[in-house]
What does this fold into?
Amino acid sequence: MIQSFLGLLMLGFATRFRVGGAYWKWRKETAFGLDESKWPSAAERRHAMLDYARWAWRMRKHTF
It folds into this structure.
């Protein structure tokens, strides 16, 4: 869980916390699609976002 929050924090700094910005819009569309009626539940989306943030945090250590 800590890695997830660190990953979100890292992504937040990278995007200057513009949650409505181009990156986050693109990320949401690629993760869940354009049709909001077909999206998973809010709880499932939160879980997926935390999984992505944890993955992003883990991948960061491979870049240095």
Q: What stands out?
A: The mean pLDDT is 88. The radius of gyration is 12 Å. The chain has three helices and no strands. Residues 42-60 form the longest helix (19 residues).
